[in-house]
Structures are given as structure tokens and as C-alpha cells.
């Protein structure tokens, strides 16, 4: 399993989101409070962020634990952004993909993360993998379930689906093909956020007056305004609004 977080709103230093809060993402890498599967997220980390005037996000990713990277605190202290997505990773299956398997995954204006695991990987997901065009399948960033989930989401985005649909349909398809999968997905294009709660915790903090929204695996502080997203739910958000839509399972 993993922990991840996304933010849209007025420009802030990454540190305010990732390193300064009492229960920030860095602390969640070794002491998550609400993680249901796994205990330590030390198999990689990453952050993607948007610079003013540039729709294509930058990324910083590493294959080891975030607490072992002496450069990360400096990066988080000086980089300012209006939108970001970050994650710490607990690998479902150990492999040689290293940094390539660390979220966020990226293409064009999009950043993506998967918190969970596809059950009976890779056999159960093979029919969905086969549905992708060969060029897209050969372009997988890593040989992990998360990379395939991202390929399925990215395929829909490139066909014109909005962020919410691009997450919801692959979740339904994967849940039908591999029952018992955990499919908490997180996606942003720098203006909007979409996320699914499917098998693990998901929370959001929205402040319309401050025009900012944070969506995360778990709260990074004890602010009473945090709200938990019910399981089997699609969340779509802008800086000033959050919508929740129940997700229904489809038959295999």
C-alpha cells in the first residue's frame, strides 16, 4: 500500500503540504495513522508540481525512503506551487523497477498515483492489458500493477474522458476482473482533482474561502474540517468545490 496527497489552491511552498504538518506525508512514510494494509512506506516516493505558466508538471522521484533523502527537505522548502501530487510507496511485489515505479506517474498535464493492489496480479489483469493498443502496452513506465492502472486511465484521458470518468471506469473494470482489489486512485491536471475510494482510506479538506482543496489518504493534522470519503466513491474537486459520487460495481 501507499499514502498519497493532492492539492489545488493559491501558491504555497511544498513544505506546507508535505513536511511541516504534524502528521505530514513524510511522517506517514514510517508512521501512518489510517493505513489498512502494510506498515512502512519505504519503497520509493515522489512529488509532482506545477510552475506558474507551465501546464506540464515537474517531478522529483526516488526509489528509497523519503526520510533518507537529504535533498528533499530543501526542495520542499523552496519550491512553491498552486497544485501538486505526492506519494510514498509500499511495494506490493518487490521488483527491479526502482524509481520508475514511484508515483506520481505523469503524461502531458496529468499526475497520477495508485494506493492499493490489483488482486491476483498479473493474471487477473491480463485481459484489460490486452485491450490496450500495443504501443501503449509497450510504453508502460514499470512492470507493476500501478503502471498498468495508469495506462488504462491515461488511455481514457487521451480519448477525451474527463478526470472523473477516466478513473471511475478503470476502477469498475479492474474490480470486476480482479475482485478484492484495492483501487484508491488520485489524479490531477493542475486545476482539478479526481480520486477514488475503493478499499482504503481517503479524506479531503476543502476551504472555499481560502480557495484550496486537499485530498489525501489520511489527514495530515487534526483540523476538524477534514471529511472522510465513503468507500466505493468517486471524488471530483476544484479549489472551491468537492463532489462525491457513489461507484457501483459491474459484473465480471
From TrEMBL:
Key words, A-Z: Glutamine amidotransferase, Hydrolase
Single GO MF descriptor: hydrolase activity, acting on carbon-nitrogen (but not peptide) bonds, in linear amides
Keyword Transferase listed: no
Highest taxon in the source lineage: Bacteria
UniProt-listed Enzyme Commission number(s): 3.5.1.118
GO terms of biological process kind: ergothioneine biosynthetic process
A Pfam family of this chain: GATase_4
InterPro entries (UniProt xref): EgtC, EgtC-like, EgtC_Actinobacteria, Gamma-glu_amide_hydrolase, GATase_2_dom, Ntn_hydrolases_N
Pathway: Amino-acid biosynthesis; ergothioneine biosynthesis
Glutamine amidotransferase type-2 domain boundaries: 2-252
Catalytic activity as recorded in UniProt: gamma-L-glutamyl-hercynylcysteine S-oxide + H2O = S-(hercyn-2-yl)-L-cysteine S-oxide + L-glutamate
Record's function text: Catalyzes the hydrolysis of the gamma-glutamyl amide bond of hercynyl-gamma-L-glutamyl-L-cysteine sulfoxide to produce hercynylcysteine sulfoxide, a step in the biosynthesis pathway of ergothioneine.
NCBIfam families: ergothioneine biosynthesis protein EgtC
This protein's name: Gamma-glutamyl-hercynylcysteine sulfoxide hydrolase
Gene name per UniProt: egtC
